[in-house]
Amino acid sequence: MSGYIAFTKKEFTENIRNYRSLIMLVLFIFFGVSSPLLAKFSPQLVAAFAINIDITFAEPTALDAWAQFYKNISTLGLSLTIILFSSCLSSEYAKGTLTIMLTKGLSRKAVIMSKFSAAATITTISYWLSFGIAYGYTVHLWPDVELPHVVFAAFPVWVTVLLYLCILMLGCVLFRQAFTSILFLLVATVVMSLLGMASQFEAISPSFLVSKNVDLLSNTVTINQFAIPAITSIIISALLLILSIVTFRKKQL
Amino acid sequence: MNVLAIDGLSKSFGTQKVIDNLSLSVPEGAIFGFIGQNGSGKTTTMKMVLGLLKADNGTIQVCGETVNYGQTKTNRHIGYLPDVPEFYNYMRPLEYLALCSEIAGLSKSETMERSDELLALVGLAGLKKRIGGFSRGMKQRLGIAQALLSHPALLICDEPTSALDPVGRKEILEILMKIKGSTTVIFSTHILSDVERICDRVAVLHNGGIAVSGTLSEIKALHGQDSLFLQFSANDEVERFIACETISPLLLGAEVNETEIALHGADMNYIQHSVIAALAQLCLCPSKMELAEPTLENLFLEVVQ
User: Fold this and answer.
1) Per-residue pLDDT reduced to its tens digit, B38-74
2) Measured between CB atoms, which of B50, B99, B105 is closest to A10?
3) Which residues in A lie closer than 8 A to residue B146 (C-beta atoms)?
4) Judging by beta carbons within 10 Å of its beta carbon (0-12, 13-18, 19+), is residue B216 exposed, middle or buried?
5) What are the DSSP E strand ranges found in B147-195?
6) What's the domain count of chain A?
7) Which end of chain A is more exposed for a tag (fewer CB within 10 A), N or C?
8) Chain B residues near residue A18 by CB distance under 8 angstroms
């Protein structure tokens, strides 16, 4: 346990000193600010740039703002998070910095758990901060609109982001290079979305969490429908972490 | 008591057998020189001792406890200095040692005291800059400091001097001499003069096994002969010397090279007496006469060839 605490502290120091935390915060704050603003003002922006074309837009709604926010988070935000954390183990392999730590008696389980804890904490803080900002702006720009389940709708995406971090951890343990870990994650994503398309898996697949969470705001899905995909996602995340630890124990360094 | 005991160790990478039925023991308090050519398997052996590589066969015991691959329990007895130690570049020396001590389970006060003591020992005391700006020699010294943090019974140094300049090498060897007695040291290298300078026991790794091992003097006595080296000023003097009756029985295995001649034998006293008698009888004065002890280098070459 002392090894885990010490190594987690080191992970946080590392993420602060190599600016990973800062980049994450800036990125997610940007998404939080830009999504509602873009949704609100994109008709004016387009109109300003395309003077000669006559386009009529429907009046943007708060729902558009949230759709924009989750689209940004689940595509660009998630990709950048993965890219930023993909080197968390590969740089240690490449430089051999883990050798001394392990010979000091640090368990391999602690290495994986510390890496995951730090990545998950930084991502969680960035994500909820981003959500808070988006929430504030949306309320500010559409003061009269009351959407249902606004806070709850943020949870499924958060669970998915953590699932992706767990897939990345396994990728990092399996492959020595950051690039291959990302490739592994891409393959896993494709497999998950294919499974999500199959009608018998749709209601339980983790992909439901990001594809349907905005529908909560328009009341086209119910909260209950998220229970099983969320549980599936959490179980898969836990299994992935366990698998990462087991694999890492067998890895020759 | 043996701090390290290796029995019947084997390891292959693919079809290449790197370590083949290696057995070795290191007694407490020794500075043990582990000699071998590049690629002979020194690092592989050390990594197996540390549980970082999986052995195909054989057992390894550290302080009486068996080493299991992937587990790090026995590593609490060991301090390890990798050949090119790498640290977290964004840390300062004290921060790095604090991280190491926390992992090793040292208390806060112990950490402070030990860090100061060790940084002073390796000559890095008071240095505040980040490790990223360290020279190779400084990293090597910090490597020794971290390895000694938790008072290990066994310090394993993997070629600690190979990549250093003469000053850096001298400093590392001096540090190792300072800790002699309190810690058993295994010191792998292919620089033989370093071994002769600080080691009291040696083992030569060749073809995956231990070719020779023992104390330095034992090995020299067993495997190398003393020799007497003579140099004359002209070729005909050498011819007259060789032709002498007293000398001819000593010529077995002797090397003659123009004006030089090297005589080998176990009984150096007898050879010296005979040579001096012959020189007196022939009225010859060699320009140089030297008694040469077997060097570790000759011995090493003898073993690996």
Assistant:
1) 888 898 999 999 888 889 999 999 998 898 887 777 8
2) B99
3) 100, 104
4) middle
5) 154-158, 184-189
6) 1
7) N
8) 90
